[in-house]
Amino acid sequence: MKNKNKRRWKIIGFSFLGIILLIIAGLGYEYYQIQPKNHFTTVPVVSTGKTTDTKSTSETVEVKDPVFNLLLIGSDERKGQNVGHSDSMMLVHVDLNKHQYDAISIPRDTRVHLDGYGYTKLTSVQYIMQATKGAKKGVEEAVRAVGELTGVSINYYVETNYGGFQAMVDAVDGIEMNVPFDVKLTHPWYAENNNKVIKTGTHSFDGKMVAEVVHERYSLKNGEYGRQKLQEEALKGIAKKALSPSNITNLPSLVKSIPKFVIATNMSTSDMLSLGLAAKDFDPNTQLEYHQIPGVGKRMYDDILKANNYQLVIDQDKINDLISRNF
User: Fold this and answer.
1) Measuring CA to CA, which of 82, 85, 181, 269 is 20 to 30 A from 261?
2) d(Cα 192, Cα 201) in Å, to the nearest integer?
3) Kind plus residue range of the DSSP H or E element containing 158
4) What is the value of pTM for the model shown?
5) Residue 49, CA distances (Å) to 45, 53, 100, 118, 325 in order
6) Using one digit for the tens of pLDDT, what is the confidence trace for 73-100?
């Protein structure tokens, strides 16, 4: 009887050990798979960047190196709504071999052509397409418009709104943000911050205050270009905090909380984890190059609104030069 019990416990013990080994092997394989050089062997293509394309694509292509383009979209969509304008857009060229990132802010008021509608502001493309053809079509058409404007293939997109931006900062327990010039909050989300002035310098901000600062543009000397700079500084602060050595072990739990602050994306959880692993120890001062697209503001006819409004006319030669040098 004792021998039977011993054999039984040996069988249970070996079975348990086998299960543990399988779990460890599985985790090891998953960790291997999310290493950037192993993970980003194929990437989707949402927009080819060609003006001949009349609609977005969803093909997948093989890539030799983990290099791709990511569009970050900030929407003014509010809680409970399902449509919004593309309030800010930043195109990022990601080179995970060199650990280098080139970012270009695309002005929201840029004059673009929307098939079937005519000329309008870039910010209106997503809104009108969401209102007529649904949320996914809206964001994909906004991606296509940026691809056509820049001539760049766009592989991934991530869209958030100001509430999501606030949640993102709170998810990393606040950030250190450099404010490069005085900012007066003239259109705050929260009434108690009306006309509050944030002085030049580095500040410790919670999500609420970051959302206030990156929303402001009316009081800034350079208007939309000034706001783009504030958004760049906020993203630097978030990335530096989230990808610091002390926080890298919390990356999986942070990625799991993404639905709290992301409205739409075509990046999977493993895509984000792999990108996070590649960007650990991120130093924005040496790894990030930031650019703005110059343009001339004019009052022009908007075919969607059927009226004149302020639009930014971009010099296509300058865009082409900027892209060829940095993408």
Assistant:
1) 181
2) 22
3) strand 156-161
4) 0.83
5) 10, 8, 22, 19, 17
6) 988 877 667 778 888 899 999 999 999 9
